[in-house]
Write a structure and sequence with these properties.
Layout lengths: L5 H16 L2 E2 L8 H11 L9 E2 L3 H16 L8 H13 L1 H9 L21 E7 L5 E7 L3 E16 L2 E16 L3 E13 L19 E3 L2 E15 L2 E8 L2 E2 L16 E11 L2 E15 L5 E2 L6 E2 L2 E16 L2 E12 L13 H8 L10 E11 L5 E11 L14 E11 L6 E10 L14 E2 L2 E2 L8 E13 L2 E12 L22 E15 L2 E15 L5 E15 L3
Antiparallel strand pairs: 1-9, 2-11, 3-4, 4-5, 5-6, 5-28, 6-7, 7-9, 8-9, 9-10, 10-12, 12-13, 13-16, 14-15, 16-17, 17-18, 18-19, 19-20, 20-21, 21-24, 22-23, 24-25, 25-26, 26-27, 27-28
Helix pairs in contact: 3-4, 3-5
Length: about 575
Amino acid sequence: MKKSILNFLIPICCSFFFASFSFSQTVYEPIHSSVYNFLNRMAEKGIVVFHDEIRPVSRKYIAEKLIQVKDNEDKIIAKDLTSVEKKELEFYLKDFGIELKQLEAQGLTTEHHSVPYRQQTATGIPQTTILSSDPYSRWRLFSYQDSLFQLNASPILGYEMGTKGGTRYSHRWNGVSLYGYLSNSLGFNFRFWDNSESGTTIDKTKSFSPATGVIIAKGAASNIQYSEVNMNIAYDWKGVDISIGKDFLNWGYGQSGLLVLSDKAPSFPFVRLDINPTSWLRFNYVHAWLNSDVIDSTLSYSTFIPGTERVILRDKYFASHTLTLVPSKGLAISMGESVIYSDKDEILYWMPIMFFRLADHYLSDKGGNNAGSNSQFFLGVSSRDQVKNTHLYGTLFIDEITIEGLFDPKKQRNQFGFTVGGSVTDLPVDNLTLTAEFTKIFPYVYTHYIPTETYQNAGYVMGHWMGNNADLVYYAADYRFLRGFRATLWGEYVRKGGQGPEQGQYTQPQPPFLYGVRTNYSYLGVEIKYEITHELFARLQYQSTEISKQQPDLSYKNSRLNEFYIAFYYGIL
């Protein structure tokens, strides 16, 4: 299959260019790391300003924020950390010891703010740690450090068992995670794990669930097996980060799901650019390669085995850019645009500051909508500690909008979704966080009549897991008893309407919200989780789901599903 030379030359050229001028390295912290929750609370209390509108963020940036929390604690007049938060801070300082040492070498911190070292690391003298604590008192499976190279490796091991709908269920996974730094130019991380789920009630499609979608490698009636791999290679050059990787990308805020980019779809390969020229302006650009799941019948061909065929899929791409403004402390306003396009790589979508919508008009000049791409606009607002100890946030995702439809109901064809939510920490009780959230997604958001231009990767929506023509109310209470030991009580109510044919998205007026056969879901759950030491977890979960399906006579038929799981695992996925 003929590939655009851009697929290969641009990432390589960018890498060598930035490598030649780089000053420090970048390693991204996995999006499910517990340090994000800690720094979110610190920002919510006004102790630090934490920019995580787009995740993952780098370990060095996290280390900078941990230093700022430590600085606050050392001040005579400081915002109070609870006793649990003080222990959490020391816990994370140990985990980010390498990055703190790098910042110290750059003069961005002092030894007073660094982790107390178990032993002093002499410059240029290699140190190897195997199944013991590293120089920063953090236990490692394997760690190596010298003046030019650092490498940390951890196992990924886990086993979960429980019952789902009264039948037994189990999930085991195993793999490896590693990250490190090379000289002053290169940072890298790699995570790989195999999975096996067993039970007669396995959710094989994971189509209406916040769980990440999977690409099944081997399946049977009561077992599925699949793998996942995420990696990044990155450079940092004077506030400009560029990376090449395959990973999850999150955009915006939301406890019950993310409208723009979430971890619902499997991770995908991309080139990422982050520019942070000032404290009040940030810019992000991503170009990605997606799995279209659409067979190209013109390029597929027969093999030498009778009845078999070599299958070629259509090319599918994603590009996105975001501008974030910080007009005042704690307030961030993000504006972004994205485009899904297919069949061939286009240089216009490789231009970070190009207006994608106008690029689409140029590229589809003679073919109209049939030759065009699928573009989106989005807006996010985050306010932290402007109301004491409170985080208020909202996201607007616009897939299609008609100006005349805003004023004339007969011409209405507005396909968008929004989330509004807020959380409050330590009010009225220390170590307690309360969250409430509402999300509404109108019909036909994320869809497209051209199958290679849907807002999906590998058949899973890249935004909110519940899809379009649905809304939800979410609430949660999270309490931290000890360092690493927390309990979360949560509830959720979802209304999901029907899914009409794709051509319906172009009718005016479009079908009303919640059209078609409706299903209501009421969730109530509790999770108890303990990070015993770095990356070693125990987890207990219970969830009760009441499903109410509308019948042809408009009545509802109810059913209930109870789930209970216990899990032990090592490694952050």
